[in-house]
Amino acid sequence: MARTFAVVLIVLFCFVGYASTHECEGMMGGPGALQVMMMGKGGDMMFGPGMGCDTMMHGGKHKCAGGLIGMREELGLTDAQVKKLKSMKMNQKKKAIDDRAEIQKMELELHEVMSEDEIDIKAVNSIIDKIAAKKAKMQKNCIRGMVDARKVLTSEQKKKLKTCKGAGMKKRMERKVIIKDD
What we know:
Blueprint: H1 2-22, H2 33-39, H3 53-56, H4 67-70, H5 72-75, H6 79-114, H7 121-151, H8 155-181
C-alpha cells in the first residue's frame, strides 16, 4: 500500500516536473509552463514583443502589441527611454534565466527525494516550500519590474498607455463575442 502511494506520488511529481520544464519549449531556451505562467515568454516585463509578466497577469493575452518598446511610436518614447527599457529588459531576462535554473535544480532535487524507497516527507515539504518561495519572489520581481518600467514614462505617455490598455481589452472582448457567435 505504501509502495503504491509512493509510486503515485512519484508519477505525480514527475508529471508536474515535466510540465514545468518542457511544455512550452522554444521560448527563450525552453522555460516550461509554470515558468511561462510566472514570467511569460522570455521573462519580458512589458518591455518588448512577446509575453511577459504583464501578460501573465492578464490570461496570456497581450495588453498592447509589443509591450512598451513595441509601442515606441504610439507612446512617443525617446531614444533614451528605449535604451533604458531595453537595459531593464536585458537585466530582467538574465535574472529570470537564473531563477528558472534554480527552480529546475530544486525540482530535480525533489524528484530525487521522491525516488527513494523511504520518502522523507519533511524533505519533500521543505523542497516544495523552497520552490514556492522562489516562484513568489519571481512574481514579485516581475511586478517590481513593471512598476519600474512605468517610471520611465512621462505622465502623458502613461495616459497614452492606459488608452492602449482599454483598446486592447475592447478588441479581446470583440474577439470573444465573434467566437461565441460562430
